[in-house]
Amino acid sequence: MSDEVVLLDFYASMFGMRIRIALAEKGIKYEYKEEEGLLGNKSELLLKMNPVHKKIPVLIHNGKPVCESLIAVQYIDEVWKDQAPPLLPSDPYQRAQARFWADYIDKKIYDAGRKTWATKGEELEAGKKEFIECLKVLEGVLGDKPYFGGESFGFLDIALVTYYCWFHAYETCGNFSVEAECPKLVAWAESCMKKESVSSSLCDPNKVYDFVLELKKRYGVN
Q1: Full-model pTM
Q2: Sign of the C-alpha dihedral, residues 39, 220, 131, 147?
Q3: Phi and psi at residue 61, in whole multiples of 5°?
């Protein structure tokens, strides 16, 4: 019996893009189902598969849901461990470090990035400062390595690179340049984009920007 893999997702979700990249890295075929949950419409399938948070993305493997993007990426790595490449480091300490920094990204980058388009005035300026400071911390973790894990693209790269297609929206709304502040991080992202698994999974930055403009209207942020 072949695996039945379904992904409930939204085109502009940086979290859903993580799962898309992981599936592409492993060469897993899956059915993509677009959800409009971020715009208020949640399908019956989404509510059934993620009754706790009621949000995308949800990876459904043989009828069983796996929620939360980082958990889903780790699940993919474990279930299809015999299919190269491995996404998490084999060394327990390095694996723990990758998880720590991925958790940092989820706790810091999303909220700071949101402030660059969802706020104004002093709050916006503070948000920009926080966003850049967080990226600089991650740039320090990257150092001079080609990827966060060293020579191989992996878990932590997947956790962060999906934000790259949101940079245009953040920069345009917040009037700043990520590259001017964090050139090494942008160079790393551009290198990641040369991978088919990444370039085919990330949303067009202009579509992300259009979506952000829609959100700004919805929330009354001018």
Answers
A1: 0.96
A2: positive
A3: -115, 115
**What digits encode the pLDDT tens for the residues 15-33?**
999 999 999 999 999 999 9
- pLDDT value of position 156: 98
CATH of 5-79, one of 3.30.2130.10, 3.40.30.10, 3.40.250.10, 3.40.120.10: 3.40.30.10
Res. 97: pLDDT tops 80: yes
Does domain 92-219 correspond to CATH entry 3.30.930.10?
Answer: no
Indicate whether 38 pLDDT > 80. Answer: no
Q: How many helices (H) and strands (E) does the chain have?
A: 12, 4
Listed residue (44, 27, 36) closest to 9, CA to CA: 36
CA 20 → CA 92, 170, 172, distances in Å?
Answer: 25, 22, 26
